[in-house]
Amino acid sequence: MIRALTAITIVVVIAAVATPAGGSAATGGGIGLAPAHGDPSRPVTEAYFVLDIPPGQSRSDAVLVSNTASVPADVLVDAVDGVTGVTSGAVYANRADPARGAGAWITAAVSSITVAPVSRSTVAFTVRVPAGTPPGDHLAGLAFENAHPSTSRGSLAVTTVTRSVIGILVRVPGPSSFHLHIDRAQIQQQPGGGGQSVVVTLGNDGGALGKPDLAVTVVGPSGYRRFLYRQLDTILPGDTIPYPVALPDNLAPGDYRLDVSGAAESMQSAVVLTSTEHFGSGVLGVQATRSPTSAVSPAAHGDGVPAWLILSLVAAAVGGAAGAALAWRLARRG
To answer: What is the pLDDT of residue 269?
Structure first.
């Protein structure tokens, strides 16, 4: 018997980013990125660009590309869109993905560059904001990817691609705000059968990026009650994500009420959603109500924990939007 062996190739991308969420851009292989501001001798302290550009206008700047390795670095240069990761936070599209957002506004001076060993170079770029662009935050990035990926040999070939991305946050002047929406809450089984999660579908239909706080209360059979709090990372304007909140318990079959509240420091009120689901055998049609105008104070107290989240315990006890309104009144008194 002749056994045919097929080589399987796995592509591993090692990426580092510098975004408005923080961090510096550097990858294995010695490549690092930082704003150059057109002057390589100027000390660099910023990790990404923040450019205020009105509609119909443009601005040019440059990226400082450093190579700390002992061999030359050949890299490909591409403008990419900024997007929201599945668990929040700013990430960047792949170089093969067509830029349809702010990434399409960026033109780099070169499409590739070779940086000599233990040296640095600059790559200029220009951002042109189209006329009629709405005010607010628009995130893109300039990606620098290794032009010569390394591939291991054997039946299981692993190709390693290194990539650094520096964030370019374009702020178009005018009134804008972060506006959270919560569309759905569902109980789902975690992959691999490792328990359950409450998956909250939420997003930002405002013009500014933001980092919301989320409170989830699960009420179920036999007096079951669980309160969960999460601080999310950046959600970009126009994006919606299915955010999973893992439950520490294995749920028994039955009907569960999910009370979800979300807000950010910049919001004047919180968003509240209450839904009922059946978990386990049997079928119960999901019933959900959305209360985006419910008034729940997002103001933070001295310990940094928003008062509305602390008082969400009260909201859970009273139930849904009525409890949220009570939490708002108590927070206002505090």
So the answer is: 72
3-state helix, strand, coil in the chain (%, to 5): 10, 50, 40
| Cα dihedral 178, 183, 187, 190 in deg (nearest 10) | -50
Give the position of tokens 């039946």: 155
- Per-domain residue ranges for the chain? 12-172, 180-333
Rounded to an integer, what distance in angstroms lies between the CA atom of residue 118 and that of residue 170? Answer: 31
Which superfamily does 180-333 belong to? Immunoglobulins (2.60.40.10)
Which amino acid would we find at residue 110?
Answer: V
What pLDDT, on a 0 to 100 scale, did the predictor assign at position 47? 83
Contact 46, 56 (CB under 8 A): no
| Cα separations in angstroms, 62 against 55, 186, 205, 248 | 21, 45, 31, 47
Specify the 3-state DSSP secondary structure of 55: coil
- DSSP, collapsed to helix, strand or coil, labels residue 248 as coil
Same fold, 12-172 and 180-333: yes
Query: In this predicted structure, what is the pLDDT of residue 300?
Result: 33
Helix (H, G, I), strand (E, B) or coil at 66: strand
Q: Are 20 and 90 in contact (CB under 8 A)?
A: yes
The fold of 12-172 is Immunoglobulin-like (2.60.40)
Cβ count near 173 (within 10 Å): 11
Neighbours of 184 (CB within 10 A): 16
Q: Which pLDDT belongs to residue 30?
A: 73
Q: How far apart are the first and last CA of the chain?
A: 80
Compute the distance between CA of residue 214 and CA of residue 207 in angstroms, rounded to an integer: 20
Under-70 pLDDT residues of the chain: 1-29, 38-46, 152, 154-157, 159, 193, 281-334
Buried-state track 108-136, b at ≥16 Cβ within 10 A, e below 16: beeeebebeeeeebbbebebebeeebeeb
Per-residue pLDDT, 6: 41
Residue 41 is classified by DSSP as T
Instruction: State residue 290 phi and psi, 5-degree precision.
Output: -115, 130
